[in-house]
Write the structure tokens for this entry.
Amino acid sequence: MKLTSKGRYAVMALVDLARFNNINPVSLRDISLRQGISLDYLEQIFSKLRKKEIVQSVRGNQGGYVLNKKAKEIKLTNIFDAVDEKVKTVQCKKESKKGCNGKSTKCLTHNLWDELENHINDFFEKKSLEDLIQDNTERRI
């Protein structure tokens, strides 16, 4: 199991955006420079985030992006869902009658990985952008 760069970068960019969100709209160029993420890649990510109404774009000279909700209302699961990131620890589908390895039974460790997936998804459901901003602020002090 691993998160792709798309999921990690989406979270990084949104934490950056949330830190400056109450001042002015934030340009992707600024996020790109601060976080070391390709501008083209950010444009792809923010297109998906905009479609899922996590962010909105503001046009004009002082344009950029703003959060569509408060940082505490945006959970990491919302972000991963918006960029089509799935946290899966097993290859089979839970509702499938077939097992993990294409046989008629589940693999011997299926329940372990399934339980881990549930814990990970619960963790991401509880964590918000605001939590990440506070964690980052506390570590700097």
